TrEMBL record:
Belongs to the UPF0260 family. InterPro entries: Puta_zinc/iron-chelating_dom (IPR005358), UCP006173 (IPR008228). This is UPF0260 protein QEZ41_02740. HAMAP family: UPF0260.
Amino acid sequence: MAAIVKPFWQYKTLAQMTSEEWDSLCDGCGLCCLQKLEDQDDGSLYYTRIACKLLDLGTARCSDYSNRQNIVPECIALTPDNLAALTWLPKTCAYRLLHEKKPLPAWHHLVCGDVNAVHAAGISQLDNMLSELDVAEEDWEKNLIFRA
């Protein structure tokens, strides 16, 4: 009888994962790469549909992942140590879910095997994003999509 092997994200902590395992957690929604605006009155954070200049609008993936922090210095690299402070991460984000000891959703590609399931489930903003290169910063407020 064959042993049942749990997927790595069910038995490893985020800190125990290899870099390959860590990177595979990203569902490709692109939400973390959208510009966010803070309400100065109450501190609420809002996502816009304005994407980082490196986000490929056709795939919702970074077009230069390995060099992103050199090109966009304010790009935040997710690590096991900084996840608790990144409260703006989407509630659907695998890194956030696992940090909060919650399961991955059924549409996550590691669960269902389909990298496009995130888009089919309506989680990503694929086909609803604009590049920050095409929208003046003073117009970002006109492109709010949801509250963090």
